[in-house]
Amino acid sequence: MKITSKQSIRLSQVCVLVFAVLLAALDLGCYWAVDWFIGTRPVLLGFGVREGILMMATIYLGSIPAWILLVNLHRLLGALAAGQVFISANVARLRRVSWCCMAACLLCLVSAWYYLPWLLVAVAAGFMALIVRIVKNCFAQAAAMKDELDFTI
Questions:
Q1: Which one of 17, 59, 94, 126 has the fewest CB atoms closer than 10 angstroms to its CB?
Q2: DSSP-assigned letters across all residues of 69-101
Q3: What confidence tens digit (pLDDT) does each residue in 45-78 have?
Q4: What torsion, rounded to 10 degrees, do the Cα atoms 133, 138, 139, 140 define?
């Protein structure tokens, strides 16, 4: 079974929607999620109210760039589905996605101060920012070449 480009874009759109639903659920149930997380890990039994509040603050603050990222991915996929690939709007969307990853990286680095595993999330987010930045640079070069080609015709 061969997956077409349209099917791949549609699958990506569904995945973005699923992540948006999961993020909304986490935003609404953050208190209970943190309470469950702390309660089910014996190593965290020393965590008190202060650490729980810090964990909730990390989640809520991280939700801001996550929503911005998801909106930009949704718009990027919409443009791709419409056949608009190498355009400046997509370059700007990828730039915003990269900055959202970097914001998450910095937030998780700070949060590693009270919960060390956030450091792993910070490294992953930083690496993702780098990858998206490189893809953004490729899109920018291709968009510039496309614009130049459009002017020569």
A1: 17
A2: HHHHHHHHHHHHHTT--S-HHHHHHHHHHHHHH
A3: 677 888 889 999 999 999 999 999 999 999 999 9
A4: 90
